[in-house]
Specification:
Aminopeptidase; 2 domains; 10-stranded mixed beta sheet
Length: 312
């Protein structure tokens, strides 16, 4: 019999410890990361036990009669124990459906964890979703480089890197998030009339909580920041969370220098370098210029999927 426990703060240590040894969890599922925006989301995370052993977590939030897994995260879904196979997950899912009915939930919006983030193979949830006639409602495409990179850079990227060398662009890690955020916020406001997902205060808080996982890299010319990117680093994968470049940086090839340094040198020991999605509106709009730039570094497609599961 599967036992479900709604998350509470007394379970924080057990939750975090489980994420660390799970087959598909990342630091984004740690409670200190999930709860930086707790004022925006009504947490409805769940823990699943069988015979007293914790086998799965479900990071989630609830909006009226809809369960989301989780709106504040880039990806979501079940976080699974190494010992949780398909038969047990099917049992867990059946128990989850019954539990959500009891809670008055009418549908679940389920994000998946792309396989590049799995420590061990963990696509069991995709099969369970199929068995429950879940409908794919959003599919975004990201560009991921398999390391070491064996795909040659495009001609445009090679030319940009030559400009970076000519302009003596220096790339280095930095802790000056405030300076980069001014550039990032200005670009996002001017181009898209939006703000970063994280405020400066939030990203600095997360950096303090996860100093080995959240890093900023900047490209400078004569001591002035030309471009930079914030990455989320995990044991086998690096995810690009934010990128931005000044107008001068675009002319000097500064951002290209950053990516070349990260892909070709700094992160050579990783398996994947994920540039992040180049789509909007659940994948209905593709930013062709952006994805062409990422593909120019050897990035190739990986999808981020979202499903809808009807509970009634």
């Amino acid at each position: 019999m599967i036992e479900i426990k709604p998350y509470n703060t007394a379970l924080k240590e057990e939750w975090d410890s489980f994420v660390s040894v799970s087959k598909n969890g990342t630091f984004l599922f740690k409670r200190d990361f999930m709860e930086y925006h707790s004022d925006r989301f009504r947490d409805f995370s769940l823990l699943f036990y069988k015979e007293g052993k914790l086998l799965a977590l479900l990071p989630a939030n609830k909006v009226e009669d809809v369960l989301h897994t989780h709106q504040g995260l880039t990806y979501g879904g079940f976080v699974l124990s190494e010992k949780c196979g398909i038969i047990v997950l099917m049992e867990i899912f059946e128990r989850l459906i019954s539990f959500l009915k009891e809670q008055g939930v009418k549908k679940m919006i389920y994000k998946t964890v792309p396989h590049i983030y799995h420590r061990l193979m963990s696509d069991e949830d995709l099969y369970v979703l199929f068995r429950h006639e879940a409908q794919l409602i959003a599919r975004s495409i990201s560009s991921c480089v398999t390391l070491p990179n064996t795909v040659k850079y495009s001609e445009n990227r090679r030319r940009a890197l030559k400009r970076a060398v000519k302009n003596n662009i220096i790339v280095q890690e930095s802790d000056d998030f405030s300076g980069f955020w001014l550039l990032l916020e200005s670009n996002l406001q001017d181009r898209f009339d939006v703000k970063p997902v994280h405020s400066l205060e939030e990203i600095e808080l997360l950096k303090s909580k996860f100093p080995q996982n959240i890093k900023l890299f900047e490209a400078k010319k004569d001591g002035q920041v030309q471009a930079g990117c914030v990455v989320f680093e995990m044991p086998q994968i690096v995810h690009v969370q934010y990128i931005s470049s000044s107008e001068n940086g675009k002319m000097t090839g500064a951002l290209d220098a950053v990516f070349d340094y990260l892909i070709g040198e700094y992160y050579q020991g990783k398996r994947y370098f994920d540039f992040g999605i180049s789509t909007e509106k659940g994948g209905e709009y593709l930013n062709e210029g952006l994805i062409t730039q990422k593909e120019g570094f050897g990035g190739r497609g990986i999808v981020y999927d979202i499903y809808e599961v009807k509970i009634e």
